[in-house]
Amino acid sequence: MDTALSKRMFEGRRFHLLAGLLIAVSTFLVYSNTFRATFHFDDTGSILEDYAIRNLNNLPQILQGSRGIVRATFALNYALGGLNVVGYHIVNLAIHITNGVLVYFLVFLTLSKLDSLREKAKRIAVYTALLFAVHPIQTQAVTYIVQRAEILASMFMLTSLLLFIKGSEAAKVYARVLFYGAVAVSYLLGFFSKEMAITLPALVFLYDWCFLAKGAMKKVAARLPLYLVLIGMLAFFVTRSLPGLQETPGGSTVGFGVQGRELITSGQQAGSTDFDFRSISPREYAFTQFNVLIYYITLLFVPVNQNLDYDFPISKGLFKIPVVKEGTVLNIPIPPPIVSLILLLA
Length: 346
What we know:
This protein is mostly helical. The chain has 15 helices and 2 strands.
C-alpha cells in the first residue's frame, strides 16, 4: 500500500468508525456458521430448566440473585424468541463484537500515551482487536451460550477500564466524578454477571501504576476516593461470595472440562453395581488449575484440538503426575503441578 495513502487512512478522523466496522464484520463472518449450534451442558440448567426467566415479571427477583445480569439477558432472549437458539447466539456474538471494539479503544488510548508508539497506536490497536475477536480460543466463550457470563463480565471490566482512563483525563471535577461513578456502576454489573469481575480494583490499580501514574504514588493517591469506593465494593462482594467459596468445588468441570468428579464403583453382585461420586478437594482443585492455566496459554499459540469438555486430569498432589484417562485428547503432556506453577511464576 502506498505510504501516503496508508498514513492518510490511519490518521483519518473516521478511522475509529472504520475500525469498529472491520472488527464487527470480521467477527460476524467468522461466527456466521454457529447460529444453529444447540444448547449444551449447563445451558440446560441455566436456560432450558430455569423457568423464572420465562416471565419478565420475575426480573426484580432474577436481578437480586447470583449472576442476575446474565439471567436477565436470558429472560429478555426468552421474551423475544422463546427457546429459539439463534437469538441467544446473536446476543452472545453482539457482546463479543462489543468486547473487540472495547479492546481496540483500550489499546489505542494506552499506546497514545507512549511517545514511542503514539503514531502507530491506531494500527496496532486494530490488529490487536482483530486478533482478540477472531482468535479460535474465543470459540467456547462465544458459542457456548451459558458462557455469556464470561463475555458479559469481560465487557463490563473493559468498560470500567476505559471509563477510568477517561476520568483520569478529565479536567473538571464533576466530569471525573461522573466517570468514576460510572466505573463503580460497571464494576457492580460485572460482578453480577460473573464473579471473576471481583478482580477489577487490582486491574485498575495496575493500569494506573503502569500507564497513568507511571510509578508515581502521589498520582495514584490523587485517585484515592475512587479506590476507597472500589475497595468497599470489593469487601461487599467478598462477603457475598464467601458461602460459595466455602463449598467444595465439584461437578463435571474444573477450569474447563476436567475430571471434576471421580466415579467410584463397588460391585457386590453380578448385575448389581453401586455408583457414587466424590467431589474433588479444594487442594486438588487448586493444583489442577496450575496445569489448566498453562494449557490455556499453549492454546493461544496453537489453538488445535479444542473441545467443549476436555476431561482434564485432576492433580492429586503438587509433585504427582496427573493420570490422563484413555481417550482424552490433549496437545501436551500434563506435568506435575509444581512444573506449571514454576512456569507461571517465571
